[in-house]
């Protein structure tokens, strides 16, 4: 098992301690009751671990490490990132779901393990619904990219050309049931495009074969192909976001190409174990939204293609519900499974 841990040592300041005292004092009668436990009144009172259920270097790492750094400074207690990869995010997710619900262990949950895997596998070892949504950290839209020599430049051209070819076109994915796989499957279902799925064990291998011109296209998180698009070693066809991605403003969306509402991304958010006190969840949501509103934090995330929007807990829960509904329908129609 691969582990990577980032430590930040920041001494709690008098300002941080005063902030926590003011928070406890300003919650009113109901808030005071919720924080009657000393551990809650001083949250966090020990190191907090943010579990990323994938190997270091992915989009989840980007969100988790920025939040850990900023939360350490703001709350005067160390927040560290711990990678627990394996089984498409399910190992780390199961670990957090079974942890003590005191806010000392959090999950940087992403699209697959929160909104997709329960429809792909009947053997899931945790309940995604039981994890408590805290805040959406950011959203990496998928972008459809092709080798520069591909005989199409738009979604419409790709669809039309695929229907003329006996074998159609092939598309790579990071694995069966990944957002990239299901985004392409949905595109084929909605347009009648003749597409063949070629699953890989991770986005890196898929990207390598695309650049070697061994497959025709790939729906990748924008963060994974942004440099290649800017250097013209890959050709962007369309973004899978509802609006044009800020990092690629000249690339049209699939929705613009005649499929309104078409949206697929790899997003990441903070989740807490079941039964974590509401006061802890509320404080974390507040802190995370303030971090995402900071000019420097926002610029860092947008520079790698993320879309950042403030969100309440209710906003995040609704977002997850919509994602689950979308993926449940696609999985049912495609018959995709990982069992």
From TrEMBL:
InterPro entries: BUG (IPR005064), Bug_dom1 (IPR042100), TAT_signal (IPR006311). PROSITE patterns: TAT (PS51318). The keyword Cell cycle does not apply. Keywords: Signal. CDD domains: PBP2_Bug_TTT. It comes from Achromobacter aloeverae. Residues 1-41 form the signal peptide. Belongs to the UPF0065 (bug) family. This is ABC transporter substrate-binding protein.
